[in-house]
Design a protein that fits this description.
With 483 residues, the chain is mainly alpha-helical. Helices cover 76% and strands 1% of the residues.
């Protein structure tokens, strides 16, 4: 596929995105940016969150992962489902009852200043790392298939992408993202479905016959029963459950969309609908990965990294139409992870660290200018982070993402669990030290787990250990509440 055609598709999609932005961002104010004035239709939020949850990471890494892990990822997805139920029944009622804009304000009410700043700080670190990885994945594909052909430096590619994200999120924020995510989810799902069809057509068989081949092969294996294995099914299930609770329920980006619903009941409807649909969509991605693997074996296609399998086949081996479908899907997957992250980080910094909501003497215009400055600063941090990550492109992106999440979301899991399920009061000034020490301990245990635990190798359950260590550290420096 010619680079000019790829660039033309990207620009056409961007124009469509900005048309939606222009409609939704009119007469937007700070409350529109933070919580969409709490008027977002729950079914629109639920549908759009599919794209925001999957992102470019799922779009490319999950299909490429099938060769190494078969369908074992589905056990993690089933864990996700139970995690979403927990969010809907435990966390959302809390957030709505306290009328939160930033969910980390709860830590201030429950524990105090330092616990509050620690929670918000870990979210900012987590989201910057995770969103930068997701954006890097997509930008790198554009670099390889478009900008390298024109000898355009990688940093210019990054700058263009970041600038587009700034422009369409700067004013409308969540009010805009709720609707642009809906558009992006539609294109991403169409891309997956059509890619499955085009692969089967190229192989000269039907989708159903090819699916039967997958079911009869070892690729469809879900349950790994060796407890030493990092993908042991029980570890996968509980890791998926707590990854969801941490990376969605304790994440400002994901909860900010839920809090834009009209009320708690609608937010819960959104969560239940979204979680059920997400199970099916993730399964579809694994089926796509199996189809890609069969195609690669039949055509002797080899790639250096599993993340490259989908783009290599779509853009170099299938028909031009299939390549266009892939590209639209990839772009659709890229924008939700970037726009939501930028908006939620702006919200957290503006409210949790600058306290814009509490500054009664500051005019609305002044608050808006400050928010704009925060927005652009965070975008600059994304720019720098993506450049750094390019030199680290040595393993599956999704594996990196969850490994990082295990270290940075663990303290948040421990803090909220302690706050929700105990009545004890922590030593607020000690909380930052506990939250930093827990991931450090986890890192060393993970490095030497096979020597220390008779061959046991940590997987995604590292998040649980991290949260547990934080919880026990808080308990050790706590006392009975006098209230």
């Amino acid at each position: 596929m010619k680079p000019s055609l790829i660039l033309g598709i990207f620009l056409a999609y961007t124009v469509l995105l900005f048309a939606v932005t222009w409609i939704t961002a009119r007469k937007a104010n700070n409350q529109s940016f933070y919580i969409g004035n709490r008027i977002s239709p729950w079914f629109v939020v639920a549908y759009g969150m599919i794209g925001a949850s999957l992102s470019g990471v799922t779009f490319m890494s999950v299909p490429g992962w099938v060769k190494e892990t078969q369908f074992s990822y589905m056990i993690v997805v089933l864990g996700y489902l139970f995690g979403y139920f927990t969010i809907a029944l435990v966390l959302l009622p809390l957030y709505y009852r306290l009328k939160l804009t930033s969910i980390y304000t709860y830590l201030d009410k429950r524990f105090g200043f330092w616990s509050y700043k620690t929670g918000a700080g870990f979210f900012i670190l987590s989201r910057i790392l995770g969103a930068s990885l997701r954006m890097f994945l997509v930008i790198n594909v554009l670099q390889i298939f478009v900008f390298d052909a024109w000898h355009v430096p990688f940093w210019i590619n990054v700058l263009i992408f970041i600038t587009l994200i700034i422009l369409y999120t700067l004013k409308g924020g969540i009010r805009t993202i709720v609707w642009t995510d809906t558009l992006q989810t539609t294109f991403m799902l169409l891309a997956v479905i059509l890619s499955v069809f085009y692969i089967s057509k190229e192989l000269g068989t039907s989708v159903f016959k090819l699916a039967g081949t997958v079911i009869d092969s070892s690729v469809s294996k879900m349950f790994i029963t060796d407890w030493h294995n990092e993908r042991f099914f029980l570890k996968q299930f509980f890791s998926g459950m707590f990854i969801t609770i941490s990376m969605t329920g304790l994440d400002q980006e994901m909860m900010q969309k839920n809090l834009s619903c009209r009320n708690l009941k609608e937010a819960q409807k959104n969560m239940f609908t979204f979680s059920g649909t997400l199970v099916f969509v993730n399964f579809l991605f694994l089926v796509l990965g199996a189809f890609l693997l069969i195609y690669a074996q039949s055509r002797n296609v080899t790639v250096a990294m599993s993340d490259d399998l989908f783009p290599t086949i779509a853009l170099n081996y299938l028909t031009p139409v299939a390549g266009i479908v892939f590209l639209i899907g990839l772009i659709s997957a890229a924008f939700p992870s970037a726009d939501g992250a930028l908006t939620s980080l702006t919200t957290s910094v503006s409210i949790d660290f600058l306290g814009l909501e509490k500054k009664q003497g500051m005019t609305e215009a002044r608050k808006t200018k400050t928010r704009y400055a925060v927005h652009i600063t965070i975008a600059l941090i994304f720019f720098i982070s993506i450049l750094i990550f390019r030199s680290l492109n040595d393993r599956a992106i999704i594996d990196k993402l969850f490994t990082i999440a295990g270290y940075t979301y663990g303290p948040l899991l421990g803090l909220y669990t302690f706050g929700l399920f105990t009545k004890r009061q922590v030593n607020d000034k000690v909380t930052p030290y506990i939250a930093i020490l827990s991931p450090v301990i986890c890192y060393f245990l993970s490095m030497y787990s096979e020597e220390l635990f008779n061959g046991y190798k940590f997987g995604f359950e590292l998040l649980l250990l991290n949260g547990f260590l934080t919880f026990m550290g808080l308990f050790a420096f706590s006392h009975k509440s006098q209230e």
